[in-house]
Amino acid sequence: MRATAGACRCGQRSARVHGRYVRRLRDVAVGGLGVVIELCVRRFRCENPDCTAVTFAEQIAGLTTPHSRYSPLLRGVLTRVGLALAGRAGVRLAAAAGITVGKDTLLRLVRALPDPEIGEVEVLGVDDFAFRKGRHYGTVLIDMATHRPLHLYDGREGEDLTAWLRGHPEVKVICRDRSGGYAEGARVGAPQAEQVADRYHLWANLGQAVEKSVNAHRSRLSEPVPATDGNSDALEAEPEEVQPSTELKIVTRLREQHAAAHELWEKGMSKAAIGRKLGLHQATVRKLVNARSADEVVAKSLQRAHIVDPYVGHLHRRWNEGVRNAAQLYREIQQLGYPGGELAVQRHLRRYRTGRGHAPVPGPKPPSVREVTSWIMTHPEHLRDEDADKLHRLRKRDPELDRLTLHVRKFAAMMTGRHGDRLEDWITNAEQDTLTPLAGFARNLRRDFDAVRNGLSLPHSSGAVEGNINRLKMLKRQMFGRASLDLLRKRVLLAR
Description:
Blueprint: E1 6-7, E2 13-14, E3 17-30, E4 33-45, E5 55-57, H1 72-85, H2 88-96, H3 103-111, E6 123-132, E7 136-143, E8 148-154, H4 158-166, E9 173-176, H5 180-189, E10 194-197, H6 199-216, H7 249-266, H8 271-278, H9 282-290, H10 294-302, H11 312-320, H12 326-335, H13 342-353, H14 369-377, H15 385-397, H16 399-416, H17 423-432, H18 436-447, H19 449-455, H20 463-478, H21 485-494
Helix pairs in contact: 1-2, 1-3, 4-5, 6-14, 6-16, 6-18, 7-10, 8-9, 12-13, 15-16, 16-17, 17-18
Protein backbone atom coordinates (compact mmCIF):
# COMPACT_ATOMS: atom_id res chain seq x y z
CA MET A 1 0.00 0.00 0.00
CA ARG A 2 1.36 3.39 -0.94
CA ALA A 3 1.91 5.71 2.05
CA THR A 4 -0.03 8.92 2.31
CA ALA A 5 2.18 11.91 1.89
CA GLY A 6 3.16 13.97 4.95
CA ALA A 7 4.26 17.61 5.15
CA CYS A 8 7.66 18.70 6.51
CA ARG A 9 8.22 21.95 8.38
CA CYS A 10 9.68 23.41 5.20
CA GLY A 11 6.31 22.91 3.54
CA GLN A 12 7.50 20.15 1.21
CA ARG A 13 5.28 17.06 1.14
CA SER A 14 6.83 13.61 0.97
CA ALA A 15 5.52 10.08 0.40
CA ARG A 16 8.82 8.36 1.15
CA VAL A 17 8.39 6.43 4.40
CA HIS A 18 11.60 6.26 6.45
CA GLY A 19 10.26 4.12 9.30
CA ARG A 20 7.59 3.62 11.93
CA TYR A 21 7.47 3.86 15.72
CA VAL A 22 4.91 3.66 18.53
CA ARG A 23 3.98 6.99 20.12
CA ARG A 24 2.15 7.16 23.45
CA LEU A 25 -0.11 10.12 24.32
CA ARG A 26 -1.82 10.75 27.62
CA ASP A 27 -5.43 11.87 27.40
CA VAL A 28 -8.08 13.03 29.89
CA ALA A 29 -9.16 10.45 32.45
CA VAL A 30 -12.28 8.35 31.99
CA GLY A 31 -14.15 7.18 35.10
CA GLY A 32 -11.27 8.33 37.30
CA LEU A 33 -8.74 6.19 35.38
CA GLY A 34 -5.87 7.56 33.33
CA VAL A 35 -6.01 7.08 29.56
CA VAL A 36 -2.97 6.45 27.33
CA ILE A 37 -3.35 6.44 23.53
CA GLU A 38 -0.88 4.35 21.53
CA LEU A 39 -0.29 5.40 17.93
CA CYS A 40 1.75 3.80 15.20
CA VAL A 41 3.35 6.86 13.69
CA ARG A 42 5.24 6.97 10.38
CA ARG A 43 8.41 8.93 9.86
CA PHE A 44 8.98 10.36 6.39
CA ARG A 45 12.19 11.41 4.66
CA CYS A 46 12.23 14.99 3.40
CA GLU A 47 13.09 15.13 -0.31
CA ASN A 48 13.88 18.87 -0.28
CA PRO A 49 17.68 19.20 -0.55
CA ASP A 50 17.60 22.71 0.95
CA CYS A 51 15.76 21.61 4.13
CA THR A 52 17.80 21.06 7.29
CA ALA A 53 15.45 18.28 8.43
CA VAL A 54 16.31 14.84 7.16
CA THR A 55 13.22 13.11 8.47
CA PHE A 56 9.94 14.21 10.02
CA ALA A 57 7.05 12.49 11.78
CA GLU A 58 3.45 12.71 10.65
CA GLN A 59 0.95 14.55 12.88
CA ILE A 60 -2.72 13.74 13.39
CA ALA A 61 -4.84 16.87 13.38
CA GLY A 62 -6.61 17.44 16.70
CA LEU A 63 -4.69 14.67 18.45
CA THR A 64 -0.95 15.20 18.21
CA THR A 65 1.46 18.14 18.24
CA PRO A 66 5.25 17.98 17.81
CA HIS A 67 7.20 16.72 20.85
CA SER A 68 4.09 16.66 23.07
CA ARG A 69 3.23 13.78 25.38
CA TYR A 70 -0.27 15.13 26.05
CA SER A 71 -3.27 15.28 23.79
CA PRO A 72 -4.50 18.82 23.08
CA LEU A 73 -7.57 18.14 25.24
CA LEU A 74 -5.49 17.05 28.24
CA ARG A 75 -3.03 19.88 27.72
CA GLY A 76 -5.90 22.38 27.75
CA VAL A 77 -7.35 20.86 30.93
CA LEU A 78 -4.00 20.94 32.74
CA THR A 79 -3.37 24.49 31.59
CA ARG A 80 -6.70 25.65 33.00
CA VAL A 81 -6.00 23.79 36.26
CA GLY A 82 -2.60 25.48 36.49
CA LEU A 83 -4.11 28.90 35.84
CA ALA A 84 -6.79 28.42 38.47
CA LEU A 85 -4.83 26.70 41.23
CA ALA A 86 -1.12 26.94 40.35
CA GLY A 87 1.21 24.10 41.39
CA ARG A 88 0.49 22.08 44.51
CA ALA A 89 -3.26 22.70 44.65
CA GLY A 90 -3.51 21.95 40.93
CA VAL A 91 -1.70 18.64 41.42
CA ARG A 92 -4.17 17.62 44.14
CA LEU A 93 -7.18 18.47 41.98
CA ALA A 94 -5.75 16.64 38.95
CA ALA A 95 -5.06 13.55 41.10
CA ALA A 96 -8.68 13.58 42.28
CA ALA A 97 -9.73 13.51 38.60
CA GLY A 98 -7.40 10.59 37.81
CA ILE A 99 -4.62 12.64 36.16
CA THR A 100 -1.07 12.29 37.43
CA VAL A 101 1.01 15.42 36.88
CA GLY A 102 3.79 17.29 38.63
CA LYS A 103 3.60 20.84 39.96
CA ASP A 104 6.50 21.98 37.80
CA THR A 105 4.71 20.69 34.71
CA LEU A 106 1.62 22.71 35.55
CA LEU A 107 3.66 25.85 36.08
CA ARG A 108 5.57 25.25 32.85
CA LEU A 109 2.29 24.97 30.93
CA VAL A 110 1.13 28.28 32.43
CA ARG A 111 4.38 30.04 31.56
CA ALA A 112 4.17 28.80 27.97
CA LEU A 113 0.86 30.58 27.33
CA PRO A 114 1.01 33.69 25.11
CA ASP A 115 0.01 37.06 26.49
CA PRO A 116 -3.51 38.20 25.57
CA GLU A 117 -4.08 40.88 22.99
CA ILE A 118 -4.50 44.32 24.55
CA GLY A 119 -6.33 46.22 21.84
CA GLU A 120 -7.39 49.84 22.29
CA VAL A 121 -7.89 51.21 25.79
CA GLU A 122 -9.73 54.48 26.42
CA VAL A 123 -10.10 54.39 30.22
CA LEU A 124 -7.11 53.01 32.11
CA GLY A 125 -6.85 52.12 35.81
CA VAL A 126 -3.49 52.16 37.61
CA ASP A 127 -2.62 50.96 41.11
CA ASP A 128 0.20 49.31 43.01
CA PHE A 129 0.34 46.06 44.97
CA ALA A 130 2.86 44.62 47.41
CA PHE A 131 5.09 41.64 46.82
CA ARG A 132 6.39 42.29 50.35
CA LYS A 133 4.56 45.05 52.15
CA GLY A 134 6.77 48.03 52.87
CA ARG A 135 9.66 46.65 50.79
CA HIS A 136 8.81 45.49 47.28
CA TYR A 137 5.92 46.71 45.10
CA GLY A 138 4.56 46.19 41.62
CA THR A 139 2.03 47.91 39.35
CA VAL A 140 -1.05 46.58 37.57
CA LEU A 141 -2.89 48.27 34.70
CA ILE A 142 -6.62 47.63 34.19
CA ASP A 143 -8.95 48.25 31.25
CA MET A 144 -11.81 50.01 33.02
CA ALA A 145 -14.29 49.20 30.23
CA THR A 146 -13.86 45.42 30.51
CA HIS A 147 -12.34 45.27 34.04
CA ARG A 148 -9.59 43.10 32.52
CA PRO A 149 -5.92 43.32 33.59
CA LEU A 150 -3.72 44.52 30.74
CA HIS A 151 -0.21 44.61 32.11
CA LEU A 152 1.71 43.88 35.29
CA TYR A 153 5.27 45.00 35.95
CA ASP A 154 7.79 45.24 38.76
CA GLY A 155 8.10 48.55 40.62
CA ARG A 156 5.85 51.57 40.85
CA GLU A 157 7.94 54.23 39.16
CA GLY A 158 6.42 56.77 36.82
CA GLU A 159 8.93 56.01 34.02
CA ASP A 160 7.52 52.50 33.44
CA LEU A 161 3.98 53.88 33.22
CA THR A 162 5.19 56.56 30.80
CA ALA A 163 6.75 53.94 28.52
CA TRP A 164 3.53 51.90 28.40
CA LEU A 165 1.32 54.93 27.76
CA ARG A 166 3.47 56.10 24.85
CA GLY A 167 2.58 52.87 23.09
CA HIS A 168 -1.14 53.52 23.68
CA PRO A 169 -1.96 57.07 22.56
CA GLU A 170 -5.68 56.20 22.51
CA VAL A 171 -5.95 56.46 26.33
CA LYS A 172 -8.30 59.31 27.26
CA VAL A 173 -8.85 58.86 31.00
CA ILE A 174 -6.47 57.52 33.69
CA CYS A 175 -7.94 56.47 37.06
CA ARG A 176 -5.26 56.35 39.73
CA ASP A 177 -4.59 56.81 43.41
CA ARG A 178 -2.87 59.97 44.63
CA SER A 179 0.68 58.70 44.12
CA GLY A 180 3.00 61.37 42.81
CA GLY A 181 4.92 58.87 40.67
CA TYR A 182 1.82 57.76 38.77
CA ALA A 183 0.68 61.37 38.38
CA GLU A 184 3.97 62.38 36.76
CA GLY A 185 4.12 59.24 34.62
CA ALA A 186 0.59 59.83 33.34
CA ARG A 187 1.30 63.51 32.63
CA VAL A 188 4.42 62.74 30.58
CA GLY A 189 3.22 59.57 28.85
CA ALA A 190 -0.34 60.66 28.06
CA PRO A 191 -0.67 64.46 28.15
CA GLN A 192 -3.94 64.18 26.26
CA ALA A 193 -5.59 62.08 29.01
CA GLU A 194 -7.60 63.35 31.98
CA GLN A 195 -6.37 62.10 35.35
CA VAL A 196 -9.02 61.04 37.87
CA ALA A 197 -8.21 60.64 41.56
CA ASP A 198 -9.95 57.67 43.09
CA ARG A 199 -12.81 58.57 45.44
CA TYR A 200 -12.11 55.58 47.67
CA HIS A 201 -8.61 56.86 48.47
CA LEU A 202 -9.92 60.40 48.94
CA TRP A 203 -12.46 59.19 51.50
CA ALA A 204 -9.85 57.00 53.20
CA ASN A 205 -7.42 59.92 53.49
CA LEU A 206 -10.19 62.11 54.88
CA GLY A 207 -10.95 59.40 57.45
CA GLN A 208 -7.31 59.43 58.58
CA ALA A 209 -7.45 63.20 59.06
CA VAL A 210 -10.71 62.89 61.01
CA GLU A 211 -9.23 60.23 63.29
CA LYS A 212 -6.22 62.43 64.05
CA SER A 213 -8.52 65.35 64.83
CA VAL A 214 -10.69 63.25 67.15
CA ASN A 215 -7.61 61.85 68.85
CA ALA A 216 -6.50 65.40 69.67
CA HIS A 217 -9.85 65.85 71.49
CA ARG A 218 -9.97 62.45 73.19
CA SER A 219 -9.97 64.03 76.66
CA ARG A 220 -13.35 65.64 75.81
CA LEU A 221 -15.07 62.47 74.61
CA SER A 222 -16.33 61.32 78.01
CA GLU A 223 -19.70 62.66 79.08
CA PRO A 224 -19.94 64.53 82.40
CA VAL A 225 -21.42 62.35 85.12
CA PRO A 226 -24.50 64.05 86.62
CA ALA A 227 -24.38 64.41 90.42
CA THR A 228 -27.20 62.46 92.09
CA ASP A 229 -27.93 61.81 95.76
CA GLY A 230 -31.09 59.74 95.42
CA ASN A 231 -33.46 62.69 95.99
CA SER A 232 -35.18 64.12 92.94
CA ASP A 233 -35.71 67.48 94.70
CA ALA A 234 -32.02 67.73 95.42
CA LEU A 235 -31.28 67.73 91.69
CA GLU A 236 -32.89 71.14 91.39
CA ALA A 237 -31.24 72.56 94.49
CA GLU A 238 -27.72 73.88 94.79
CA PRO A 239 -25.21 71.05 95.27
CA GLU A 240 -23.79 70.75 98.73
CA GLU A 241 -20.22 71.85 99.29
CA VAL A 242 -17.86 68.92 98.99
CA GLN A 243 -15.73 68.49 102.08
CA PRO A 244 -12.04 68.14 101.28
CA SER A 245 -10.59 64.72 101.98
CA THR A 246 -7.60 64.19 104.21
CA GLU A 247 -4.49 65.60 102.50
CA LEU A 248 -1.73 63.17 101.54
CA LYS A 249 1.52 63.35 103.48
CA ILE A 250 3.52 64.15 100.36
CA VAL A 251 1.24 67.12 99.63
CA THR A 252 1.67 68.49 103.14
CA ARG A 253 5.44 68.08 102.95
CA LEU A 254 5.64 69.84 99.59
CA ARG A 255 3.63 72.80 100.87
CA GLU A 256 5.89 73.13 103.94
CA GLN A 257 9.05 72.91 101.83
CA HIS A 258 7.74 75.48 99.33
CA ALA A 259 6.91 77.97 102.12
CA ALA A 260 10.29 77.47 103.84
CA ALA A 261 12.27 77.80 100.60
CA HIS A 262 10.51 81.03 99.61
CA GLU A 263 10.98 82.50 103.08
CA LEU A 264 14.74 81.87 102.97
CA TRP A 265 14.96 83.05 99.35
CA GLU A 266 13.32 86.36 100.28
CA LYS A 267 15.94 86.79 103.03
CA GLY A 268 18.62 86.73 100.33
CA MET A 269 20.00 83.24 100.78
CA SER A 270 21.35 81.41 97.72
CA LYS A 271 19.80 78.21 96.47
CA ALA A 272 22.82 76.21 97.57
CA ALA A 273 22.54 77.68 101.08
CA ILE A 274 18.81 76.95 101.16
CA GLY A 275 19.53 73.35 100.19
CA ARG A 276 22.05 72.96 103.00
CA LYS A 277 19.66 74.61 105.45
CA LEU A 278 16.67 72.44 104.55
CA GLY A 279 18.60 69.29 103.64
CA LEU A 280 17.34 69.28 100.06
CA HIS A 281 19.04 68.72 96.74
CA GLN A 282 19.83 71.88 94.79
CA ALA A 283 17.54 70.78 91.90
CA THR A 284 14.66 70.39 94.36
CA VAL A 285 15.34 73.86 95.78
CA ARG A 286 15.37 75.30 92.27
CA LYS A 287 12.00 73.68 91.56
CA LEU A 288 10.49 75.05 94.79
CA VAL A 289 11.83 78.58 94.30
CA ASN A 290 10.77 78.81 90.65
CA ALA A 291 7.22 77.68 91.43
CA ARG A 292 4.87 80.61 91.95
CA SER A 293 2.61 78.64 94.28
CA ALA A 294 2.65 75.42 96.25
CA ASP A 295 -0.22 74.05 94.14
CA GLU A 296 2.01 74.17 91.08
CA VAL A 297 4.60 71.96 92.78
CA VAL A 298 1.94 69.58 94.02
CA ALA A 299 0.31 69.25 90.58
CA LYS A 300 3.60 68.44 88.87
CA SER A 301 4.49 65.87 91.51
CA LEU A 302 1.14 64.08 91.37
CA GLN A 303 0.61 64.08 87.60
CA ARG A 304 3.17 61.36 86.97
CA ALA A 305 1.44 58.26 85.63
CA HIS A 306 1.57 55.23 87.87
CA ILE A 307 1.90 51.69 86.58
CA VAL A 308 -1.52 50.83 88.05
CA ASP A 309 -3.31 53.79 86.42
CA PRO A 310 -4.47 51.98 83.22
CA TYR A 311 -6.26 49.40 85.39
CA VAL A 312 -7.86 51.73 87.93
CA GLY A 313 -11.25 51.42 86.23
CA HIS A 314 -11.25 47.64 86.75
CA LEU A 315 -10.08 48.02 90.37
CA HIS A 316 -12.81 50.61 91.06
CA ARG A 317 -15.52 48.37 89.66
CA ARG A 318 -14.39 45.27 91.55
CA TRP A 319 -13.92 47.24 94.80
CA ASN A 320 -17.47 48.55 94.56
CA GLU A 321 -18.67 45.00 93.93
CA GLY A 322 -17.23 44.02 97.30
CA VAL A 323 -13.91 42.45 96.30
CA ARG A 324 -11.28 43.63 98.81
CA ASN A 325 -8.55 40.99 98.41
CA ALA A 326 -5.45 42.62 96.87
CA ALA A 327 -4.00 39.30 95.69
CA GLN A 328 -7.19 38.44 93.81
CA LEU A 329 -7.40 41.89 92.22
CA TYR A 330 -3.73 41.63 91.25
CA ARG A 331 -4.34 38.32 89.48
CA GLU A 332 -7.31 39.79 87.60
CA ILE A 333 -5.47 42.82 86.22
CA GLN A 334 -2.45 40.64 85.47
CA GLN A 335 -4.62 38.73 83.00
CA LEU A 336 -5.51 42.11 81.44
CA GLY A 337 -1.84 42.83 80.75
CA TYR A 338 -0.69 44.49 84.00
CA PRO A 339 3.14 44.30 83.94
CA GLY A 340 3.86 45.31 87.56
CA GLY A 341 3.95 43.47 90.85
CA GLU A 342 1.43 42.86 93.61
CA LEU A 343 3.01 45.39 95.96
CA ALA A 344 2.02 48.31 93.72
CA VAL A 345 -1.59 47.09 93.75
CA GLN A 346 -1.53 46.82 97.55
CA ARG A 347 -0.24 50.38 97.85
CA HIS A 348 -2.93 51.64 95.51
CA LEU A 349 -5.68 49.92 97.52
CA ARG A 350 -4.26 51.09 100.85
CA ARG A 351 -5.82 54.53 100.44
CA TYR A 352 -9.24 52.90 100.21
CA ARG A 353 -8.69 50.86 103.37
CA THR A 354 -7.34 53.73 105.48
CA GLY A 355 -10.16 56.11 104.66
CA ARG A 356 -7.97 58.54 102.67
CA GLY A 357 -10.23 57.99 99.70
CA HIS A 358 -12.54 55.45 98.23
CA ALA A 359 -12.90 54.06 94.78
CA PRO A 360 -15.57 56.18 93.07
CA VAL A 361 -18.34 54.54 91.15
CA PRO A 362 -17.08 54.54 87.55
CA GLY A 363 -19.10 56.61 85.10
CA PRO A 364 -20.09 55.48 81.60
CA LYS A 365 -17.16 54.38 79.46
CA PRO A 366 -16.21 57.13 77.00
CA PRO A 367 -16.39 56.21 73.31
CA SER A 368 -13.13 55.31 71.64
CA VAL A 369 -11.50 57.50 69.00
CA ARG A 370 -12.37 55.00 66.29
CA GLU A 371 -16.00 54.87 67.37
CA VAL A 372 -16.34 58.64 67.18
CA THR A 373 -14.53 58.67 63.82
CA SER A 374 -16.98 56.06 62.54
CA TRP A 375 -19.95 58.12 63.71
CA ILE A 376 -18.63 61.21 61.92
CA MET A 377 -17.81 59.33 58.70
CA THR A 378 -21.16 57.50 58.53
CA HIS A 379 -24.17 58.95 56.74
CA PRO A 380 -26.61 60.35 59.36
CA GLU A 381 -29.43 58.20 58.01
CA HIS A 382 -27.35 55.04 58.48
CA LEU A 383 -26.41 55.72 62.10
CA ARG A 384 -28.15 53.85 64.87
CA ASP A 385 -30.36 56.06 67.01
CA GLU A 386 -28.13 55.48 70.03
CA ASP A 387 -24.95 56.45 68.15
CA ALA A 388 -26.63 59.45 66.54
CA ASP A 389 -27.70 60.68 69.99
CA LYS A 390 -24.17 60.26 71.37
CA LEU A 391 -22.72 62.15 68.42
CA HIS A 392 -25.28 64.93 68.86
CA ARG A 393 -24.37 65.37 72.54
CA LEU A 394 -20.67 65.29 71.69
CA ARG A 395 -21.09 68.00 69.06
CA LYS A 396 -22.93 70.19 71.55
CA ARG A 397 -20.10 69.83 74.09
CA ASP A 398 -17.24 70.38 71.63
CA PRO A 399 -17.59 73.12 68.96
CA GLU A 400 -14.46 71.92 67.12
CA LEU A 401 -15.83 68.39 66.67
CA ASP A 402 -19.10 69.98 65.54
CA ARG A 403 -17.25 71.90 62.81
CA LEU A 404 -15.31 68.74 61.90
CA THR A 405 -18.57 66.85 61.37
CA LEU A 406 -19.93 69.64 59.17
CA HIS A 407 -16.77 69.62 57.02
CA VAL A 408 -17.01 65.85 56.56
CA ARG A 409 -20.67 65.93 55.61
CA LYS A 410 -20.08 68.71 53.09
CA PHE A 411 -17.29 66.69 51.51
CA ALA A 412 -19.51 63.59 51.41
CA ALA A 413 -22.30 65.55 49.70
CA MET A 414 -19.79 66.92 47.22
CA MET A 415 -18.42 63.45 46.48
CA THR A 416 -21.71 61.56 46.15
CA GLY A 417 -23.41 64.36 44.22
CA ARG A 418 -20.47 64.86 41.82
CA HIS A 419 -20.11 68.54 42.76
CA GLY A 420 -16.44 69.01 41.95
CA ASP A 421 -17.07 72.71 41.38
CA ARG A 422 -17.40 73.14 45.18
CA LEU A 423 -13.92 71.75 45.89
CA GLU A 424 -12.13 75.12 45.96
CA ASP A 425 -14.52 76.56 48.55
CA TRP A 426 -14.30 73.42 50.69
CA ILE A 427 -10.50 73.46 50.68
CA THR A 428 -10.43 77.17 51.58
CA ASN A 429 -12.80 76.69 54.53
CA ALA A 430 -10.87 73.67 55.81
CA GLU A 431 -7.54 75.48 55.57
CA GLN A 432 -8.90 78.41 57.56
CA ASP A 433 -10.21 76.19 60.37
CA THR A 434 -8.21 75.43 63.51
CA LEU A 435 -8.41 71.67 62.91
CA THR A 436 -4.77 71.03 61.96
CA PRO A 437 -5.07 67.49 60.50
CA LEU A 438 -8.05 68.51 58.35
CA ALA A 439 -6.21 71.61 57.13
CA GLY A 440 -3.25 69.41 56.17
CA PHE A 441 -5.56 67.12 54.20
CA ALA A 442 -7.02 70.13 52.40
CA ARG A 443 -3.58 71.49 51.48
CA ASN A 444 -2.64 68.08 50.11
CA LEU A 445 -5.73 68.12 47.89
CA ARG A 446 -4.62 71.42 46.41
CA ARG A 447 -1.36 69.84 45.19
CA ASP A 448 -3.36 67.41 43.02
CA PHE A 449 -6.30 69.72 42.46
CA ASP A 450 -7.23 68.84 38.84
CA ALA A 451 -7.26 65.07 39.43
CA VAL A 452 -9.25 65.45 42.66
CA ARG A 453 -11.79 67.73 41.01
CA ASN A 454 -12.18 65.22 38.14
CA GLY A 455 -12.64 62.44 40.70
CA LEU A 456 -15.45 64.42 42.33
CA SER A 457 -17.06 65.34 38.99
CA LEU A 458 -16.65 62.45 36.53
CA PRO A 459 -18.38 59.05 36.82
CA HIS A 460 -15.10 57.12 36.55
CA SER A 461 -13.93 55.22 39.61
CA SER A 462 -11.11 52.84 40.54
CA GLY A 463 -13.46 50.24 41.98
CA ALA A 464 -12.54 47.72 39.28
CA VAL A 465 -8.86 48.29 40.03
CA GLU A 466 -9.34 47.57 43.74
CA GLY A 467 -11.26 44.40 42.88
CA ASN A 468 -8.40 43.19 40.69
CA ILE A 469 -5.90 44.02 43.42
CA ASN A 470 -7.82 41.81 45.85
CA ARG A 471 -7.85 39.01 43.30
CA LEU A 472 -4.12 39.49 42.67
CA LYS A 473 -3.40 39.18 46.39
CA MET A 474 -5.33 35.93 46.50
CA LEU A 475 -3.34 34.51 43.56
CA LYS A 476 -0.03 35.63 45.09
CA ARG A 477 -0.75 34.00 48.43
CA GLN A 478 -2.04 30.87 46.74
CA MET A 479 1.38 30.30 45.18
CA PHE A 480 3.24 30.69 48.49
CA GLY A 481 6.92 31.32 47.68
CA ARG A 482 6.59 30.49 43.96
CA ALA A 483 4.93 33.81 43.08
CA SER A 484 7.70 35.08 40.81
CA LEU A 485 6.78 37.96 38.56
CA ASP A 486 6.51 36.01 35.29
CA LEU A 487 4.25 33.32 36.74
CA LEU A 488 2.11 35.80 38.68
CA ARG A 489 1.77 37.95 35.58
CA LYS A 490 0.48 35.01 33.50
CA ARG A 491 -2.10 34.06 36.09
CA VAL A 492 -3.29 37.65 36.62
CA LEU A 493 -3.65 38.31 32.88
CA LEU A 494 -5.08 34.95 31.81
CA ALA A 495 -6.94 33.37 34.76
CA ARG A 496 -10.50 34.62 34.54
